Amino acid sequence: MAFLSRLVFLSASISIFCHTSAVAQQLDQKKTLAEPNTYVGSEICRTCHLEHYDAWKRTLHSKMLQDVSKNEDVLVTELDEKVMKEDFKKIEKKLKVPMDQIYFPKREDVLYTIGSQWKQRYLVKQDGKYFIAPTQFNIDKGRWVNYHDHDWKERPWLKKCGGCHATGVDLEKETFNEPGVGCEACHGPGSHHAALPVGESLGKRANIVNPSKLTGGVAVQICGSCHNRGKATKVKGSGWPVGYRPGKALETYYRSIPADDKKKMYPGGFSKGHHQQYIDWKNSRHADSGVDCISCHVVHELGNPVFQSKTKLEGDKLCLSCHEQVAQVGAHSVHSFGNCANCHMPRIAKSAESGDIRSHVFKVLLPKDTLETKIPNSCQSCHKHQDEDLADLQKRWDNLTKRQPANGGDVAQARQNGDATQASQ
Ligand code: HEC
Ligand code: HEC
Ligand code: HEC
Ligand code: HEC
Ligand code: HEC
Ligand code: HEC
Ligand code: HEC
Ligand code: HEC
Fold first, then answer.
1. Whose alpha carbon is nearest atom 43 of ligand 7?
2. Ligand 2 atom closest to Cα of 48?
3. What are the residue ranges spanned by the domains of the chain?
4. pLDDT at res. 24
5. How do beta strands 254-256 and 230-232 pair?
6. Rg for the chain, CA atoms, rounded
7. Beta-strand pair 178-179/230-232
8. Nearest bound ligand to the CA of residue 162
9. What is the model's pLDDT at position 19?
10. What is the DSSP letter of 424?
11. pLDDT tens, residue by residue, 64-112
12. The pLDDT of residue 423
């Protein structure tokens, strides 16, 4: 292990020395240092941190917003007006303006694609401003749906979405430095860090944010600055924390939606909307115990195997790396397999179609929760027989989970006795 990390260190140092001249070519060092610290873009970071760059390139962060003029293949489908219209016909009742008044973007109108996993939206310009075209492609189902077909021209992208999907957004100048979630979205602006001579390690460290050196609560807010939903506090009408920088307190710049927001929250602190992982997580025991996003996820790691959602380990192995012993009693004795996430992180939030995004509260949702509040449960991803009687499933579950092994019997017995005593009083 020690040998390996030394090797990694050595190769990192070599790449730093080899590429310094490349930075010098791109950045006028003296001039850059004389000016305020600002955004330079991930391509500059790459010249010295090739490994981080390479790993980051494989994550969706680097792909959130993609320039169509540089690579047409970023379009996941063709922008064929005929096909769009056919799909819109099927949902005509949901359209807010008549079909012949809807704007269907043409290939040459689209400047950037937004997203590539669940759904894709399209960035176009109107009168010099960026707007999100009112057509959305849902990737899993392969269908077109409408998106703010009536008011899309009142929703400027930079203000509504910009800071969560691009890096170095300047609302006053109406510009951004880099499409997608670049290095500086999490590390803060890096022009001074990049321009300082490589030998000046201390100066370099002082001029860039390293999340692992921040206190946990502040570090996790970096992720919370985007995996969140709410309102900017400094700029009215903006959906992202305008003015926030990694290392600062997010609350100053952002208010998350309240727990009783019926459109985007289920009862009990579970998210209905997507990009709310931080809200969910705050409601979890993991948050109380300091188990945060990077306890489970990597954002760039040398040689990181490509697991779904960039988890540190695959499937149950991740949970079992900390929960070494999950007693095979009660809830855990019913099934012959693990599959922790299917019960503890059910797909109940919506990005493109309902139920594509996992809960991060880590609490299991039982059939009775659905009966009580209509929230989807963890069970029906598998027990999805159409006429499954939820009350009956709950009863079968209760019967089976009541059973305890001999040594746990005392507790169960005591509880039952307690209940019985109470009932008789
Ligand atoms: C000219 C080379 C160079 C460029 C360009 C460069 N870095 Fe660095 N970076 C370094 C060196 C050298 C260190 C190691 C300093 C040390 O700890 O000895 C470093 C360290 C870091 C650290 C860790 C700091 C710490 O306190 O531990 C981060 C984070 C970082 N760089 C991010 C970036 C980002 C983001 C960019 C692009 C904006 C960037 N770097 C551009 C050379 C560079
Ligand atoms: C989504 C947020 C995020 C993005 C984007 C990101 N980083 Fe990081 N980076 C982190 C976090 C969190 C840490 C500390 C924990 C860790 O190492 O994973 C870190 C640590 C580092 C370090 C310190 C050494 C180390 O590995 O611990 C360097 C250097 C670094 N990042 C460079 C980069 C560069 C270069 C890019 C862009 C190519 C980049 N980062 C993009 C979040 C990010
Ligand atoms: C500037 C906004 C921003 C910040 C900061 C940010 N994210 Fe993200 N993250 C996004 C967006 C946007 C996506 C979706 C990208 C896509 O689908 O193309 C995403 C996707 C992800 C994914 C799925 C990645 C994959 O490749 O499958 C994970 C995991 C994730 N983020 C974790 C984190 C963690 C952990 C942090 C903090 C260290 C963080 N993010 C910080 C905006 C951000
Ligand atoms: C507070 C930050 C934030 C704001 C504001 C925001 N998003 Fe996102 N968005 C995210 C994050 C984080 C993800 C990925 C995680 C998830 O979906 O749960 C995402 C995912 C997406 C995706 C799906 C990406 C994929 O690969 O499937 C699209 C499309 C998208 N956003 C478009 C928009 C548009 C358009 C707006 C503005 C009207 C917007 N978002 C506003 C943070 C934000
Ligand atoms: C205890 C572990 C754990 C913690 C803590 C955690 N995650 Fe996750 N996350 C997961 C697992 C497991 C998945 C699903 C992986 C899969 O589908 O295979 C996931 C999926 C995701 C996804 C992909 C969206 C989806 O539902 O497919 C995003 C984005 C994400 N996490 C962001 C975050 C952020 C941001 C935080 C911190 C606020 C965080 N996670 C905290 C374990 C964790
Ligand atoms: C980095 C270590 C770590 C990882 C990885 C991890 N957990 Fe945890 N988990 C903890 C800690 C610490 C607690 C708090 C322990 C406590 O309160 O007794 C906890 C608490 C929990 C709880 C709440 C327990 C209770 O008493 O209410 C559940 C449920 C849970 N984890 C499930 C999971 C699942 C599912 C995964 C995988 C997706 C996972 N954990 C991954 C460390 C971890
Ligand atoms: C069939 C659904 C199901 C599966 C699969 C499942 N759990 Fe649970 N788990 C539950 C229920 C129900 C509880 C009771 C607490 C609750 O409602 O959240 C629970 C409780 C827990 C707790 C807290 C109490 C305790 O026993 O320590 C932890 C930690 C936990 N599970 C981890 C895991 C891990 C790790 C896995 C995967 C190896 C897993 N669970 C798989 C349903 C499940
Ligand atoms: C990942 C898929 C999956 C999930 C999630 C799941 N189950 Fe199951 N369940 C099964 C399978 C398969 C069996 C058959 C026994 C086995 O293979 O272990 C089963 C068996 C059962 C049984 C015993 C047989 C019966 O039908 O009476 C009950 C009760 C049960 N599950 C209830 C639940 C409840 C309640 C939940 C949610 C907390 C749940 N299951 C979540 C797949 C799942």
1. 343
2. 35
3. 10-61+186-208, 65-180, 265-424
4. 63
5. antiparallel
6. 25
7. unpaired
8. 4
9. 55
10. H
11. 999 999 999 999 999 999 999 999 999 999 999 999 999 999 999 999 9
12. 31
